[in-house]
Task: inverse folding
């Protein structure tokens, strides 16, 4: 029988390193994917995701289930990504969809590539918090409540961030509609 994330975290808080390994195995790709989408840099994504797990381990003794573990990890990742943005000028990757679109003609493929590059550039131009909200909502499919928890914000604030981001993206991408 598999333990829940919360049960594993309680065990980690008691010093069970095998439980921590299970948490890492369950969430390492998830953490890296978010960091990579935010930074578009494999090395930075690796560093951010590793730091997230270090923070999980460091705080395990004080872990209290207030939300799902994944939400707790989103919050850590969101803070690390925003800290990274303050230190550097990150670029978001064009590998958002997970699946590339292919068509039968080179011209169509070129149009798709140009559109993807325009979307990436438009998202890159958003303020850091808006960019993170867009990634969490539209590429990770988090609910507004989960985003609010991850970004230490209210649902209304997330709604406003996303509304401003959509408005700006519509303006920037008007030629691709």
Result:
């Amino acid at each position: 029988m598999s333990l829940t994330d919360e049960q594993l975290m309680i065990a980690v808080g008691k010093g069970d390193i095998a439980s921590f390994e299970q948490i890492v195995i369950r969430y390492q790709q998830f953490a890296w994917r978010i960091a990579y989408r935010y930074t578009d840099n494999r090395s930075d994504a690796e560093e951010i995701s590793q730091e997230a797990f270090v923070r999980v381990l460091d705080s395990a003794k004080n872990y209290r289930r207030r939300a799902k573990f994944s939400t707790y990890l989103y919050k850590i990742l969101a803070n690390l990504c925003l800290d990274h943005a303050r230190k550097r000028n990150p670029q978001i990757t064009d590998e958002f969809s997970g699946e590339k679109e292919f068509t039968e003609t080179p011209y169509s493929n070129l149009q798709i590539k140009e559109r993807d590059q325009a979307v990436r550039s438009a998202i890159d131009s958003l303020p850091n918090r808006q960019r993170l909200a867009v990634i969490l909502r539209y590429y990770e499919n988090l609910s507004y409540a989960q985003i609010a928890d991850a970004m230490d914000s209210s649902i209304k604030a997330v709604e406003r961030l996303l509304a401003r981001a959509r408005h700006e993206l519509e303006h920037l991408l008007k030629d691709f509609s």
Q: What stands out?
A: The chain has one domain: 5-176. The chain is about 70% helix and 0% strand. Confidence is low (pLDDT under 50) at residues 90-100.
